[in-house]
Write a structure and sequence with these properties.
The complex is a heterodimer of chains A (160) and B (120). Chain A has 160 residues and is mostly helical. Chain A has two domains: 67 residues, Rna Polymerase Sigma Factor, Chain: A, CATH 1.10.1740; 65 residues, Orthogonal Bundle (Arc Repressor Mutant, subunit A), CATH 1.10.10.10. Chain A is built from seven helices and no strands. In chain A, 34% of the residues are buried. In chain B, strands 1-2 form a two-stranded antiparallel ribbon. The longest helix of chain B has 31 residues. Chain B has two domains: 38 residues; 64 residues, no CATH class. In chain B, strand 1 and strand 2 form a beta hairpin. Chain B is 50% helix and 10% strand. Classes of the chains: A mainly alpha (160), B mainly alpha (120). At the A-B interface, helix 1, helix 2, helix 4, helix 5 and helix 7 of A face helix 1 of B.
């Protein structure tokens, strides 16, 4: 398919940038990653299907995975096993505070869990679509998402 | 009866902790979904937005300096012969003012031609 690359970039740039930003947590890295994604689009333009969204998500995830490997992040990942005190019912988080905590916690998930949460919960893809993009079983995606959601919830409760 | 999730004995099929956690997950999912509608502003645009005021402050400062420097270029000591003044003006180079901008790649040179003010 020969689609105008400029049109393709205009139509999907925000989606690619947003996904990369949520995966990498740095706008500068996300912009570089988005650039890399669209360079790959130009390179493989002829093999793009009529609906390139899934392909773009897959390339974005791959490019971000390269970043993880290169950066070899040493930040502590959430294990989900630490003490989980009961939340104080009097203390209700504002949406803004919860959003901040979730973004913090997202950066502490394992790369695979983070990818699953970003694609499923933020980008709103179905479990089947996420499985297709990552080339893994749907049950694996469900497991990763469940583990990640529990870790995020416990992180938010602990931070109260 | 046991909690369906954690297996702890509980009367209602789900213990309080698991119920709270499920509520927490539900709220988190809604907050995460809201992130989908956020527009990410590329860094370059953000930088440009920040740079604009600085640039105009720089330009304004340069304009003030030029305004102050301009009378000095036309100053002649009292009593100097008119001819000598003409000679100086005819042979002098145009005044070159270098204006540095916040962008290191952009330098503005302002050439002021003093001949424009020479009476014919």
């Amino acid at each position: 398919m020969n689609r105008n690359p400029a049109e393709l970039v205009a139509a999907h740039h925000q989606m690619v940038l947003r996904t990369a930003y949520r995966l990498l947590g740095s706008l500068e890295d996300a912009q570089d990653a988005a650039q890399e994604v669209f360079l790959r689009v130009l390179k493989h333009q002829s093999s793009l299907g009529p609906e390139p969204k899934a392909w773009l998500y897959r390339v974005t995830v791959n490019v971000c995975n390269d970043y993880y490997r290169r950066a070899k992040r040493t930040s502590t990942e959430l294990t989900g096993e630490s003490a989980d005190p009961a939340p104080d019912p009097e203390q209700i988080l504002t949406l803004k505070e919860r959003r901040k905590l979730l973004l913090e916690a997202l950066g502490r998930l394992s790369p695979r869990e983070r990818i699953c949460v970003v694609l499923r919960d933020i980008e709103g893809l179905s479990t089947a679509e996420v499985a297709q993009i990552l080339d893994i079983e749907e049950t694996t995606v469900r497991g990763q998402i469940h583990t990640a959601r529990v870790k995020l919830a416990k992180y938010v409760r602990r931070a109260r | 009866m046991m909690c369906k999730i954690c297996g702890v004995p509980e009367g209602e099929g789900q213990c309080r902790d698991c119920r709270d956690l499920a509520d927490e997950i539900r709220i988190n999912s809604a907050v995460l979904a809201a992130l989908r509608d956020e527009t990410i502003v590329p860094l370059a645009s953000a930088r440009n937005l920040r740079r604009k005021p600085a640039f105009w402050w720089g330009a304004a400062a340069a304009a003030v300096l030029i305004a102050l420097a301009l009378p000095l270029t036309q100053y002649r000591p009292p009593g100097s012969p008119v001819r000598a003044r003409h000679d100086v003006r005819d042979t002098s180079e145009p005044l070159k003012v270098k204006i540095l901008t916040p962008d290191p790649d952009v330098v503005i040179y302002w050439l002021i031609d003093s001949k424009e003010n020479v009476p014919q």
